Amino acid sequence: MRHSVLSSAVTTVTLVLAFAGALLVPGMRAEAGITDTPLPLLNGTDKAKHVYSVVGVQDETNQYATIFNCTSTEKPGGDTIILGVEVFEFHGGLENDVTAGVGVVSLNPGQNKTIGTQDIASFGTSTDIAAASVDGGTARILATSTKILCNAAIVETEGLVPGAMMDLPVYKKTKQKGY
Questions:
Q1: Helix or strand or coil: residue 138?
Q2: What is the rounded distance in angstroms from the CA atom of residue 86 to the CA atom of residue 48?
Q3: 158-175 CB burial, b ≥16 within 10 A, e <16
Q4: pLDDT tens-digit readout, 159-169
Q5: Which residues in the chain land under pLDDT 70?
Q6: CB 89 within 8 A of CB 137
Q7: How far apart are CA 81 and CA 147, in angstroms?
Q8: Max Cα separation, the chain?
Q9: Per residue in 81-118, pLDDT tens?
Q10: Residue 102's closest CA among 124, 128, 140?
């Protein structure tokens, strides 16, 4: 009896350690992504709202990038909106830090700005996220106000005139609506 209890305990401890070890294997990261990552403070000071989500984010240096183009719909004389884009890799890992101002811009009423995963001269990006290579990622568009309109696209980065462009769907927070 004593041998079977000890054997059972050793087996249980072995299984627990094996499972814990599997969690630490490189390349098997469990990340949070757009729904579970806490909302940050934009520039470290401004409370963010999750306004839109984008799926299909892609970035490959000197080949293609994703741009996020947003316009403030505040009326003249209204508040300046702080806008940020967080990019997540396919496994949910965050690529940039909006609390440090990476991927963050200010929008005056009626103003339009473009944030890119790379600096793209042909689109006049206002700031770039400088993301590592992103394949099948997602993004959260965050702002201090919901009074913004945005679109997103994957674009070629070579040359002064982009040769190809593909629109990406932009969803209100995490809600997808049918067409």
A1: strand
A2: 11
A3: eeeebeeeeebebeeeee
A4: 666 667 788 88
A5: 1-31, 159-163, 174-179
A6: yes
A7: 8
A8: 82
A9: 999 999 999 999 999 999 999 999 999 999 999 999 98
A10: 128
